[in-house]
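This entry is set out below.
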Amino acid sequence: MDIKSIRWMILLFSGIVAASNSTAQEHKKERNYLYNEYQHGGGEAAFRDLAQWRQDRLKSITVKMAALPAVTKATLLKEADKAMAFNWPSLPATLYLEYRDNGNRVNFENAQFERRKVLAALVAGELAGGNGKYMPQIVNGLWLILEESTWVLPAHIGAQKAGSGLPDPAEPVVDLFAGETSATLSWAQFLLHDQLDKISPMVNKRITYELQHRIVEPFLQRNDFWWMGWSGRSVNNWNIWINTNVLQTALLSINETDIRNKVIEKAIRSADNFVNGYPEDGGCDEGPTYWGHAGGKLIEFITLLNNASAHKLSWSNNQLIHQIGAYIYKMHVDSSRFVNFADASASTIPPPHTVYLYGTAFQDPLLINFAAYLSRLDNPDSLKVKAPSLAFFIYNLECRDALLATKPAAPYTAVNWLPDLQVVSMRSQAGTSKGLFFAALGGHNAESHNHNDVGNFVLYMDGKPALIDVGVGTYTKQTFSADRYKLWFMQSQWHNCPTINGVQQQDGRQFQANEVRFGNNKLSMDIAAAYPAAAMVQSWKRTFTFAPAKTSLQLDEAWQLKEWKEPFLLHFMTNLPADTNTAGKVILQGSTTHLTITYDPALFEVISERQEVTDGRLSPVWGDHVTRISLKARKQALKGQHTVKFVMTR
């Protein structure tokens, strides 16, 4: 993972509830699975032997580092050697203020993220056999980070009472990246405590002081950070991501037993607000890309608690948490392709270690083998241990042998229906990516990181995209503003949805699918309520019938308008070349497969439009353009029905 990927990751996950509240609130149940188990396991007493856990963890890491192949260590040392010449970038006030003044968040974040990335490479090199060689540069990096005015991103500093601008030193704020930095410093101190003391005892003293001032004190003293879950707002990945990093800090770095116990207990109670908001089907309304820092962080959180408590705390029989883990393979298409509704990317690789932790926690071979599959995708070089961050480096190190010894396999389950999320995924044949893959959603337009996409669907042929969800572009200030839905890729007209009477879907909880039903390979819903009153639509019943043996999908729609204003349009997005020369037929031309779309030419005329793709996050996935195929109604009528068929051929 290069620095560009790191920046995209943070940009992706750092939106404050993405211009809408999460659906979690409507699913919220006071289950309190985490805190109940904490009490059942003895509460504070469960962590009485933490000193032994620390000693064992450090010894295990040391043993695993020593056992790495010589070529693997050499690679880590080579990366650390490069980092020795690194010129640590300055972070001036004017750079921090760019977000406030012109909306640019990239320039500051690139410099700040690079500091952490280089520090991880140096620490990994020192562990691989640096013998003190890299310690001076490690201290340089640590000292610079400790001297940063804030660890909070410019895009998040608006949470302080002073609002956006420069950070107020009197009000430490805990955001995603303050949490990430806290974990990074805690790991560095844990792994190299004695070596740091040899250079100067002030380094460890300063780390402890800054963690206490910037993280521990505000975490314990405040309950009004929205992500904690006690302010009345729904929570999303922020909750479990930050709580996991705070928990790491407590377990690795806080030596005062009373303070550490308070942090652990509060993190557990706060994290329950995340779990309480999950639907019973385990579906992540933030999508597979976010899952790595939502469900993925949850398994890190409970694994830390399980291990640090000497297994007194265990959630291995908790079906909801198991389903949260299983969600990720249910949304898998093939390779790095995942169903990408909302702000998810169509190409992503969930952190393999998180999938592996789910697999081992629940003794689920599908997840264990899928983790090995993802690991090969993420890191094809079996002799390399990636170090995108210190925490991820340790997870990659600790899981390496098991993942290499496990047969890589994607589950490729045939039918997955998530009734609470109202998402379905289906494929022609279980156990293979060959054939036709179909996914669709009902839902509503106030989901976390929402797009206006009720009734949207995607089709893949042999694991390759044919009808697509474009996804989301690079996050900017506009992404989380009142102008979010002015971005083209957020709008229903750029999803596989209708435009009715010239009106698109609208954002808001009331704009939803109704009468959603699934069974016998058929998904049906009425999407009329996803449109505002101006659409003048009484009902719009959309029914998908998937035929696995025929590698085909049939879309039937029956509609009724209150008033006719202009012809409706059925939109279909594709990344493939489209042949529209034959009336009643559109052929999407893949390299070895074709998707034939058939419609009644007496009812529709076809319109093909090229949409340029210039965004730095979308173009690597789709190239320089995508195409929108629209079927425009020919007749003026208040009610009607039609059928559109999609057939895959070779």
